[in-house]
Amino acid sequence: MARRRNPFDIFGDFDEMFEEMLKEFENMGPGEHESGPFFYGFSINQRPGEEPEIREFGNIRPESGKIEIGERKPLVDVFDTDKTVQIVAEMPGIEKEDVELSAEGRELEIKASHGERKYHEFVDLPADVDIDSAKASYKNGVLDITLNKIQRPSRKKRINVE
C-alpha cells in the first residue's frame, strides 16, 4: 500500500533524495568512494515580496538518479546594494592563485582548481556592473567580489504629442 504523504511535510522530497544517495553509497564496491568528501546542499533565500530562491551546491548531482562526482558548486550569496553588487563564494581548500574570474554582461564566472579540488559556477548579476571596478579577495576559504553598478544618469525630457 502506498504511503500517504503529510501535506505539511516540506522536506519529504529531500528525505527521499538523501535515502537514494545513501543506497548508492552502500552499493558501491570497495575503493569506489574513497575519493571523497561528498557533499550536497541547498540554500533558500527569500527577499520581501519575491518568490523564494533555492540554490544547490556541492559535488554530488542527485537529480540524475546517480551520484556523479565532478566540479563542486560553491555556496554563493549575492548582495545587491544601492551602488554595488557583492558576491561571496565559499571555496575551501584552494589558494587565491587558483581562482579565475571573468564577467560578461550580467554574468560572472567563477573557476578554481587546486589538486583534485575543483569549483565552477556561473552567477547571474542583478544589475549592470562596471567590470573595470571589480575588486576580489580570497581569505580563509571565502572569495569576496565587489563590482560597482553602472550609474546611468536619469534626465527629464519633454515629449511632444503629435
TrEMBL record:
GO terms for biological process: response to heat. Residues 66-162 form the SHSP domain. The keyword DNA repair does not apply. The keyword DNA-binding does not apply. InterPro entries: A-crystallin/Hsp20_dom (IPR002068), HSP20-like_chaperone (IPR008978), HSP21-like (IPR044587). CDD domains: ACD_sHsps-like. It comes from the Archaea. Keywords: Stress response. Belongs to the small heat shock protein (HSP20) family. This is Small heat shock protein. The lineage of its organism: Archaea, Methanobacteriati, Methanobacteriota, Stenosarchaea group, Methanomicrobia.
